[in-house]
Amino acid sequence: MAYLPRVVLIGAHGHGRGHLERIARLHAARRLRLAGVADPQPLDPGQRALLGDAPFAPDAMTLLEAVEPDLVVLVTPVHTHVDLAEAAMRAGAHLLLEKPPAPTLAGLERLLRAQRETGRVVQVGFQAFGSGAVAELRRRIDRGDLGEIRAIGGTGLWWRPAEYWARSGWAGRRELGGAVVNDGALTNPFAHAVALAVTLDGSGGDQSVRRVELDTYRTRAAEAHDTASARIVTARGTTATVAVTLCAEEESEPVITVHGTRGSAVLPYTQEGPDTDLLENLLAHLADPAVRLLVPLAETRGFTEVAEAVRHSPAPVPVAQRDLTGLPELTRRAAGSGLLYGETGAAWATAKPFDWTPEDTA
């Protein structure tokens, strides 16, 4: 009989529901065995049908101890990631950890230490890195089609109503009950854009970004920013500028643009294309280590350093939604020219730029 890794899902609601559906499909295809689900909230009838005969527990630690899974898929609020992910690794499980991996750089360091000590494999759920379009762009960059990479720009223009920030107790929070949450447009909804921007030039691994400058704004009552720009100098010295908002009344899909000495390439990374599922990639890697893991935990350092800069930055400047005039044009201009919002001349963009380097947290 073929070996079927026992998989536990921690967090079955919200984004976790999609993971439960995916795990159930792979269970039916005899690619893995769904060994249990943990969530503090009860499951609805549809979720229970997907669970089948596997156990359910409201407490993740109880389920980990009872099942001793081979692999854990962790889809919980970001401020719970570090404790639960470390517990899963120390229980002997490999891990698919939803993004962002940790709300702080210290949290990421703790997870990397636990990974070294346990020898477990950790994949981080930046699903954009499984995109066929991303893989093709990386091949073009590696072949030198674009020449030397000089700049990277990223834009995000989405709309999220006030209800978005009230969907849970941690949404839109910088801290909650003394725990760092670090939610916000750059660190959560547009985390893929930031992660791509700091790695497409070949930066990654244990290399640190060199510098982060940013300005942040909010139109809602939430603590966190809903509009922000960040100018990042990657480990290889490329300037990557990301300008994003959740206040765009006319939405458009996020775009990454890579500028080289021989040409430019545009990547609308959320659009449909051939994708490699990160859980399937993790399973394939565990079965054959020659299969490249798409998003190893160590490769998320650059992103987490940007998140660390956001964490240390001042509270976002309040702005009235009605004052955000010309937002799409300003966002594209900032990303395309390497400007922060506050450097575009926009009357509402009054935040003083915050400057951070990795040495500031060392």
What can you see in these coordinates?
It is a single chain. The protein is 30% helix and 24% strand. The chain is an alpha/beta fold and 362 residues long. It has 2 domains: 6-128, Rossmann fold (3-Layer(aba) Sandwich), CATH 3.40.50.720; 135-272 and 297-360, Dihydrodipicolinate Reductase, domain 2, CATH 3.30.360.10. Strands 7, 10, 11, 12, 13, 14, 15 and 16 form an 8-stranded mixed sheet that branches. A 6-stranded parallel sheet has the order 3-2-1-4-5-6, sandwiched between helices. Helix 4 (81-90) runs parallel beside helix 5 (105-118). The longest helix has 14 residues, at 15-28. The termini are far apart. The mean pLDDT is 96.
Counted by DSSP, the helix tally is 11
Rg of Cα set: 20 Å
DSSP strand tally: 16
Report on the biggest sheet.
Answer: 8 strands, mixed
Shape: globular
Straight-line distance between termini: 50 Å
What class would the helix/strand composition place it in?
Answer: alpha/beta
CATH topology of the largest domain: Dihydrodipicolinate Reductase, domain 2
Nearest-integer average pLDDT: 96
